[in-house]
TrEMBL record:
Family: Belongs to the binding-protein-dependent transport system permease family. CysTW subfamily.
Superkingdom as given in the UniProt entry: Bacteria
PANTHER family xrefs: ABC TRANSPORTER PERMEASE PROTEIN YQGI-RELATED, PHOSPHATE TRANSPORT SYSTEM PERMEASE PROTEIN PSTA-RELATED
Localization per Swiss-Prot or TrEMBL: Cell membrane
ABC transmembrane type-1 domain location: 62-280
GO MF, any single term: phosphate transmembrane transporter activity
One Gene Ontology term, aspect cellular component: plasma membrane
Keyword annotations of the record: Cell membrane, Membrane, Transmembrane, Transmembrane helix, Transport
Protein name, per record: Phosphate transport system permease protein PstA
Membrane topology (UniProt): Multi-pass membrane protein
Length: 293
C-alpha cells in the first residue's frame, strides 16, 4: 500500500472514531436533556425536596452544592497557589521535591470514594464534626488541591522566561517578580483551572456521601447568622448536594415521582457543569487575549 493511500485510510479511521465519540457524547447529552427538561420549572428549582410525596424540588440541594463549592475553593485555592508557586519557582531538584511531586501525582489519581472515607473517618468521626458542609468542603479540597497545584505550576512555568529576566534586570526580588510579573501573566491558566475545579466540585457525589451527609434539613433563608442551626450559612449543618440527591433518589426508590425528579435534577446538574466548562474556555481565552494585547 502506497504512503498516500495509507494516509487516507488513517484519516478515514480517525474521522470515524471521532464521529463515534461525538455521536455517543451527543446522544447522552440529548437523552438527559430531553428526558429531564420538561420537569424543570421555577418551583422545581426553588422548592425543597419531599421524601415520600410527589412534587418535590431541589432548591436546598442546589444551594448546598453552590455553598460547598465556594467553601472548597476558598480552602483549596490558597494552598494550591502557594504549592504551585513553590514548585515552579523555588523548589530545587532534590529527593524531597521529587517525593512531593510523587505525592501530588498520587493524590490526583485517588478515587473520590477514598477521599470520602477519609473525610468520614477523620473529619466526621475523629474530629467529631459530624456530617456537615465544612466536612464536605474539606474533603473536596483534599480531592482537588493536587490537580489545582499542577495547574498553577504549569501556568507559571509556561510564562515566557523573558519576564523573569526582565524582573531581575529591574532589580526586583524573586518574590516581587513572581507576584508582579509571573502570576498576572499566568492568570488565564489559573482561572481556567479554578473554573474546572468548581465544575468538578459541583458534580461530585461519592466523596460527599460520607462527609456532608445525605439529609437536607429545612432552612430559613431569611436567617443569615452562620451560628444558627437553621441558617443556610451554618457550616456545621448536614448538607445533601444535588449529585448526592440524585444518587439517593435512585438508590432508595421512596419518592413516587423519583425517576422524573432524578431526571430533572440530572439535567440541571449537567447544564451547570457544561456552563462551568464552557466558561473556563471563554474566560481563559478572553484573559489571554487581554493580557497579550
Amino acid at each position: 500500500m502506497k504512503k498516500e493511500q495509507l494516509n487516507k485510510v488513517n484519516n478515514v479511521m480517525i474521522s470515524l472514531l471521532t464521529g463515534i465519540v461525538i455521536l455517543l457524547a451527543g446522544s447522552f447529552l440529548l437523552y438527559v436533556l430531553v428526558r429531564g427538561f420538561s420537569v424543570i420549572s421555577w418551583e422545581f428549582l426553588t422548592q425543597p425536596s419531599k421524601a415520600f410525596e410527589a412534587g418535590g424540588g431541589i432548591g436546598i440541594q442546589l444551594f448546598n452544592s453552590l455553598y460547598i463549592m465556594i467553601l472548597t475553593l476558598l480552602i483549596c485555592l490558597p494552598i494550591a497557589l502557594g504549592a504551585g508557586i513553590y514548585l515552579a519557582e523555588y523548589a530545587k531538584d532534590s529527593a524531597v521535591t521529587r517525593g512531593f511531586r510523587l505525592l501530588i501525582e498520587m493524590m490526583s489519581s485517588l478515587p473520590s470514594i477514598v477521599i470520602g472515607l477519609f473525610g468520614y473517618l477523620f473529619i466526621v468521626i475523629k474530629l467529631d464534626i459530624g456530617f456537615s458542609v465544612i466536612a464536605g468542603a474539606i474533603s473536596l479540597a483534599i480531592l482537588n488541591v493536587a490537580f489545582l497545584t499542577r495547574v498553577v505550576e504549569d501556568a507559571i512555568r509556561s510564562v515566557d522566561g523573558a519576564q523573569r529576566e526582565g524582573g531581575i534586570a529591574l532589580g526586583l526580588s524573586r518574590w516581587e517578580t513572581v507576584t508582579k510579573l509571573l502570576i498576572p501573566s499566568a492568570i488565564p491558566g489559573i482561572v481556567t483551572g479554578v473554573v474546572l475545579v468548581a465544575g468538578r466540585t459541583f458534580g461530585e457525589a461519592a466523596a460527599l456521601i460520607f462527609s456532608s451527609g445525605q439529609s437536607a434539613p429545612a432552612m430559613d433563608f431569611s436567617n443569615w447568622n452562620p451560628f444558627d442551626p437553621t441558617s443556610p450559612l451554618n457550616p456545621f449543618r448536614p448538607a445533601e448536594t444535588l449529585a448526592v440527591h440524585i444518587w439517593k433518589i435512585n438508590s432508595e426508590g421512596l419518592m413516587p415521582d423519583g425517576p422524573m425528579v432524578a431526571a430533572g435534577a440530572g439535567t440541571v446538574l449537567l447544564i451547570i457543569i457544561l456552563i462551568f466548562n464552557i466558561s473556563a474556555k471563554l474566560i481563559g481565552r478572553g484573559l489571554e487575549k487581554k493580557l497579550s494585547s
